[in-house]
Amino acid sequence: MKMVFCDIDGTLYREHLQISPLNKEALIRFREAGGKVVYCTGRHILEMGKILEEDGYPFDYLVLNNGGAILDGHKNTLYEKHIEAPIGLDILQWGVDANMFVHMCDGKKSYGCFNHQSFTHNDQGDRPIPDDFMTLMKRSPSFQIISLNQENMQTDQIDIIKKRIEEKYSKHVECHPNLHFLDVVPNNCSKGTGVNYLKEKTNATTYTIGDSWNDLSMIEAGDHGCTFNYAHDDIQKKADHVYSYVYEMINDILGGKI
Fold first, then answer.
1. Which end of the chain has a smaller Cβ tally under 10 Å, C or N?
2. Which pLDDT band, with edges at 50, 70 and 90, does 151 fall under?
3. Residues 6+ apart with CB under 8 A from 173
4. Structure-model confidence comparison of residues 168 and 153, the more confident one
């Protein structure tokens, strides 16, 4: 059996728009030929509705939260890890104090905060709410994922918080940079661990494709690790194959070229 692990942001979508409708058509053809499709992303489940339901991208498994949760084709949880509440609250407070955009998901709810304004967060966007953010956070027993990014799209403050997290909580959480974002997930969780989990479960031949730093573990874990010609040179060097679009990789798989 062949299984494709596909990143979403920068791979299938850019600025919330599909990069190419041919990608979706190719993934459908791949499944019709007996392959399995897995979306391997830093997104959480509350951010996946538009992609799966409205846009109708086919899937057999979901690796979410940078490997922190794995779901089957019916969205049943196969694997899940959480950040303990005291640790998550500390990290969230650091982001709020630095006046960053802060997002979290505990598996059931997702909230964000910027400039002391709280909002609900999902794939339809952000809706302001009057609640105090940290008061809301204390109601969550744990966290699946925490994301931070700066208003100016730079990384200097993110680098400071990343170092602080690693110095204090390296035994408990992992940091995954992605352009100007920083995703914080439970320890020993990455896109690569998601690939390995499903490979062991299914004994599939794995094809992985992504464009950014948080995709490296996935690219390296795949039997055939792929990236794009617009990815950073350091990422391209780790890949077995370089493409312009996902559908090119699918065509090579179905054509027996890889």
1. N
2. confident
3. 83, 87, 91, 165, 184, 185, 186, 187
4. 168
For 15, left (φ over 0), alpha (ψ -120 to 50), or beta?
left
Q: Which residue type, as a one-letter code, is found at position 248? A: E
Q: In whole angstroms, give the CA distance from residue 192 to residue 203.
A: 15
Cα→Cα distances 206→64, 112, 188, 197, Å: 17, 35, 20, 11
DSSP-assigned states of every residue in 89-129: HHHHHHHHHTT-EEEEE-SS-EEEEETTEEEEEETTEEEEE
User: What angle do helix axes 85-97 and 156-169 make, rounded to 10 degrees?
Assistant: 160
Question: What does the alpha-carbon distance between residue 89 and residue 91 come to, in Å, rounded to a whole number?
Answer: 6
Report the distance separating Cα 138 and Cα 140, nearest Å.
5
- Sorted by where each starts, the structural domains of the chain and their CATH numbers stand as 2-80+190-254 (3.40.50.1000), 83-186 (3.30.1240.10)
CA distance 72 to 189: 18
pLDDT of residue 186: 97
Q: How far is CA 176 from the centre of its chain?
A: 9
Percent of the chain with pLDDT over 90: 89
d(CA 18, CA 22): 10
